[in-house]
Structure prediction request, 278 residues.
Amino acid sequence: MLRRSIAVSLALALGTVLVLALAIGGSSQNPVLGEPPLEIPRTQLVIGDATVVQGNVIVTWARVRTNGDIKQVGVTIPVALFDDQPTEEGDGPAGAIASLVFPQVVRETTYFNHFELQSEPDGHVAPPGSVNPDRNRVPHFDFHFYAVDEEIVWGIPATTAPPRPTPVPDALLPEGYIQPGTSIAEMGRHSSPLSALLDPNPLSTVMIAGFTVPGDQMHFIEPMVSREFLLERNDFKLPVPRPAVFGRTMRYPKEFTAEYDADSDVYHFIFSGFETVE
Prediction:
């Protein structure tokens, strides 16, 4: 089993929290970081769940304004994990090597519930109709940002065709995305941007939208990034898929940025620009 309890590596976890505080401007109001300063900061760092994978601490977090609004939601992952890519499945849904909840304030007010990381050392098939059917065969990582509880993800069934999958209503399908195909067990249905299907090059980065089996909810968004691209250690951005309607009132991000921190050799995967949607 690739995961170990965070309690086993508390020193590593605390070190990662300190890295977060320094790198993204966290507030020392977090009890891990000591007493608050005399001046109340405009935002504070709130740590979510954490785990250790192959000696590397993965942490979820949020930056929260003093009025309670979410400024950023993120996860921090050491590049060493991408360099020494896990070749065995973990014990999370669909073989996830990490499954971590976000802070409570994030779960209560935004789209996000928890984060799952899958390692794909041999890649996987590309969507039907892709110009390059081997586009996704390169070693890569799937960064799933879920809007539903892990318990729900465990219960998602696999489906096969026929019958033809139920189409996602136009209002729920982000602009520029294709209809998702059949469902992958403990994950769901995947929708790619049309541009990815037309790209003859091997995968570097793409943002996937995930849907429930009946197609009535976009229940995850997924940056999918090749190992080779991650090891270049560069910042990058991806567009955030946005349906016309969501079916519930919440805060949803407009931007996704992956920021590389050279001092600590980690990536911060960050959603920001939150605004109210329905």
